[in-house]
Design brief:
The protein has about 525 residues and is an all-beta fold. Helix content is about 0%, strand content about 30%. The radius of gyration is 26 Å and the shape is globular.
């Protein structure tokens, strides 16, 4: 929705609303006496998600938002608003003024807001934000008590270095979608700023009395190769099993789950309730895979400290040894406590010993962001989302398909290529070691690549660069001279993204990578497009 260029009554113009939910909206160039865009009374409970509030003004305080009730603002951009346009004095709050209640900001930009003559920064005033406020980018005009570097918050940021502008003003533009948005500048702090990897504060094991190694090792980072966040999950590794790095049960028999031993249950507690979207596990190993590693999991979620559990999810964990595996829940689940029952290990799996115990290396969770941005563009699952209402276009999925095989029936690029996707293959990403799943099993090598792009349109082969090689330095590979055929299929990809199948000649190549040239305000980080 849009609220543009409105001027409310100079004395009082307020709607009496007890509950307010705003999503996917833009409030721009509006004026009022107080609360240029939105003004909420003490009786209002409000949630604002994926919305842009820019260039609004108030003759008195609160150029953007005036909050007096309990308000939560998520993945929104509040910038360029101005308070006290007609008066001087103490009232401020160019971006947000809090008069009462609780104010929570998550993954939100509040920067470049002013008071008086437009030269005095005033982003957040009269506010003490909730401790639940995380991963926000705040300008130089007051932070509401948030501290730079704490809980992922960035404080004291010059808005001109983060948001698209013409040198003096924000650029509210048509960037796709039903409403105008302000795009962040590529490569700045707002991009991939929501590194919301959550570590439980405590863990207890139902088999603690007999465990060989304690469960506390699962949440203390003791075995990890270094600091871990959403951006390096694919490369962070875990050390070999030991009493100080891993958790493992006793060994009641050669096959733990063929005995009368109790099913292990790990209960993780958090310092507050989070919306959780994924489980991240590092394996149990001795330099090589070990069948003690947990396999079948039942997760149960609680919002009352574990007194009751309201939701359950069944997951299967591969034998990953030193590497991490991210297991999605398929949706965001609110929880302050998670109980994980382990109902099987990898006993009997070929290529490794063990199975008499149950073990893991490290456990973390990913905090959910809204699935889409203000424009309806999918937020990434494998990389950290952006701060604010706008998500830059990027690769949401990468697949190889066997073009002109029995599965798609022709060499043409069309929707039938979906039937030729090799579901057992994955793209090799920078920093990873090639495994069987990264090699094509097709007799013609690689002759079909499908890339799902979020936030892109008008894609052609000229938006990509194709190189061919067979070593670990793709930047030095020669450019592939044959221009492949490409078809853009909007909305057919994962989470409504745009799949773009590329088909080369009938006989493909043995090693190939593709990197794109940012289609329509896309992602400038080449490592994410290979």
């Amino acid at each position: 929705s849009r609220l543009l260029d409105k001027n409310t009554h100079p004395t009082e113009d307020m709607m009496s609303i007890n509950r307010l939910y705003v999503s996917g909206s833009v409030f721009a160039n509006n004026t009022a006496r107080e609360g240029g865009a939105i003004r909420m009374s003490a009786s209002t409970t409000a949630t604002i998600v994926n919305s842009t509030i820019v260039n609004n003004g108030a003759s008195r305080p609160a150029g953007g938002v005036q909050s007096n009730g309990d308000v939560t603002i998520v993945n929104s951009t509040i910038a360029g608003n101005r308070a006290n346009t007609a008066e001087s004095g103490s009232p401020t709050g160019g971006g947000i003024q809090q008069l009462g209640g609780t104010l929570v900001l998550q993954n939100t930009i509040v920067a470049g807001n002013y008071r008086y003559n437009g030269k005095t920064a005033s982003d957040i005033s009269n506010a003490t934000l909730s401790n639940d406020s995380t991963h926000n980018l705040i300008g130089t005009g007051g932070s509401g008590g948030l501290t730079d570097g704490v809980n992922g918050n960035l404080v004291g940021v010059d808005w001109t270095t983060v948001l698209h502008n013409d040198g003096t003003s924000l650029l509210l533009e048509d960037n796709g979608g039903p409403t105008q948005t302000v795009a962040p500048i590529p490569g700045t702090a707002a991009i991939d700023g929501v590194v919301s990897l959550v570590t439980p504060s405590t863990v207890t094991s139902s088999t603690a009395g007999t465990d060989l190694y304690p469960a506390a090792n699962l949440i203390n980072n003791s075995g990890l190769s270094g600091p871990v966040d959403r951006a390096n999950l694919n490369t962070a590794t875990h050390a070999s099993a030991s009493s100080t790095t891993t958790w493992v049960t006793a060994a009641p028999g050669s096959d733990y789950f063929a005995t009368t031993a109790p099913v292990p249950a790990l209960t993780f507690e958090f310092n507050r309730a989070y919306w959780l979207s994924d489980l991240v596990l590092w394996g149990y190993h001795f330099g090589s895979p070990n069948n003690n590693e947990a396999k079948s999991l039942l997760l149960e979620f609680s919002t009352d400290g574990g007194s009751s559990f309201h939701t359950s999810v069944e997951l299967n964990h591969q034998r990953t040894a030193a590497n991490a595996e991210t297991l999605p829940f398929g949706r965001g689940i609110l929880a302050d406590t998670v109980r994980m029952r382990i109902t099987d290990n990898h006993y009997g799996t070929l290529g490794a010993l063990g199975g008499d115990r149950v073990g893991l290396g490290e456990v973390k969770f990913i905090e959910a962001s809204p699935a889409v941005d203000q424009r309806g563009i999918a937020r990434p699952q494998e990389f950290a989302p952006d701060i604010g209402a706008f998500e830059f276009s990027r690769v949401a999925n990468r697949r190889v398909f066997y073009n002109d095989s029995n599965f798609d029936g022709s060499s043409n690029v069309n929707a039938e290529d979906d039937h030729a996707i090799a579901v057992d293959k994955q793209a090799l990403l920078p920093g990873e070691t090639a495994r069987f799943q990264n090699y094509s099993s097709y007799i013609h090598g690689i002759n079909g690549i499908m890339v799902d792009l979020a936030g892109a349109s008008g894609v052609s082969s000229s938006d990509f660069e194709f190189r061919v090689g067979n070593d670990d330095n793709p930047a030095a590979w020669p450019i592939f001279t044959v221009t492949p055929s490409v078809l853009e299929r909007p909305g057919d990809g994962v989470l409504g993204t745009t799949p773009c199948p590329f088909a080369g000649p009938g006989t493909g190549v043995g090693g190939n990578t593709c990197s794109g040239r940012r289609p329509k305000r896309g992602d400038d980080d080449e490592s994410k497009r290979r």
